[in-house]
Amino acid sequence: MPTDTLKVTAFHSLHQELGGRLVPFAGFSMPVQYTGIIEEHMLVRERVGLFDVSHMGELELVGSGAQAFLQRMTINDVSRLTPGRVQYSAFCTPEGGIIDDLLVYRLGAERFMLVVNAANIEKDRRWLAQHRDGEVALHDRSAQTALLAVQGPRSLDTLQPLTSADLTGLRYYHAIEATVAGIPMLVSRTGYTGELGYELYFPAEESKARTVWQALMRAGAPFGIGPVGLGARDTLRLEMGYCLYGNDIDETTTPLEAGLEWITKLDKGEFIGRESLLEVQNRGIGRSLVGLSVAGSAVLRSGHMLHADGAPIGKVTSGSFSPVLRHGIALGYVHASHAQTGSTLQAVIRGREAPATIVPLPFVKR
């Protein structure tokens, strides 16, 4: 995509000032790194890092029929959410393939916010609009919403001095309205790194973005805070075994294959894809997403084939060097008969085979 057609976030000028290496990502110009992926990765694991993730989409649903509509559209049980709670979920096709994975925020009795992947904003909006019925209005707030993620063991120490809200009481997968650095916003605690962390949603105005960013950098300076790009975001999530849409999950994969049965509530009643997923459950899955550990200097990448006894039994969907473990790790799909923890497979890297052992997830225990 030509660079002059890329969208930018409210933090774009800050990324340029900080020397971030900007690359095209999901239609946006986004920083992939600042000082280096490994350094930024360890910053989040050991101290605190600041991510611009404003490219993510925010879709708002409002109305007396919003809960019933989302029950039909998503695979998790929306009725379990009370205002201020957040839920990980997914949209599925009638065949059970994953259209997108997302977060569902219940902001009120009749008001929800869906946080969706950047590359899928328009697809998800059309999918919801196509099936919308009952008393529910759909609003795309993506372009008007800035989103920062403050992640790492010192994230609370960084954020708490900037707000009068008591963040020590904010539980995992909960959200509150608060004023941070003088800016009203929604603060949640979910995260994509496996560390303690918070998300800040507020109006996407450059002056507000600069105010919040600079306040966080000042408050986090005693703890060594630094900006973090999408490169480290990817290695951090991979160490935790979290799926990346477009790599580990897509419309050709079901949540049951991807290890997401824990969010797939087949007993909640009808939802799109339920019948197909029940069939998969009854006959048994044919393949499973597994974690793979590689000894030595070998690094697996998406698309590398996996063999057992000389025959292909799957392929890698995500792979990288783990900065914490200091060796290669990967996610990949293998035939269910070969998915046992402890099994050793052969990964084909540039025509040569390297042993890869199936290990439990997450790779890094926090």
Descriptive notes:
The chain has 366 residues and is of the alpha+beta class. The chain is built from eight helices and 19 strands. The strands form four sheets. It has a six-stranded mixed β-sheet with strand order 10-11-12-9-3-13. A six-stranded antiparallel beta barrel has the order 14-17-16-15-18-19. The chain has a five-stranded antiparallel β-sheet with strand order 5-6-7-4-8, with helices on one face. Strand 5 and strand 6 form a beta hairpin. The radius of gyration is 21 Å and the shape is globular. The mean pLDDT is 97.
Largest sheet: 6 strands, mixed
What ranges have pLDDT less than 50 throughout 5 or more consecutive residues? none
Count all strands and give the number.
19
Give me the side-by-side strand order of the main sheet.
10-11-12-9-3-13
Helix proportion of residues, in percent? 10-25%
Strand content: 25-35%
Q: State the order of secondary-structure elements, H for helix, E for strand.
A: HEEHEEHEEEHEEHEEEHEHHEEEEEE
